[in-house]
Amino acid sequence: MKILYLQSTSELGGSDIALLRLIENLDRRRFTACVLLPADGPLVAAFRRLGCEVAFMPEMLPLTSRRGPRYLARYLFNYPGAVWRLARLIRRREVDLVH
Which residues of the chain fall below pLDDT 70? Predict the structure, then answer.
């Protein structure tokens, strides 16, 4: 089973480390992991060392109101294209589960 993990950052934060630990403990005989990130970052090498495929999609902006209304407008404008590209990637890589 191929699992695609969507992660909004590849920095050294709590959710990033949790995802790394989750993938580290997957049964490799049953599951193949792929992580989709918005950009390169410190955890990419760690994911790859685990045998995890890493893909990048810059359109995956994190949803936050802390950056102001211009950012939110950009997020909304960007959203349909990001969903379309994500759906294409899921089909092309024959993903069974998105997490």
Answer: 63-65
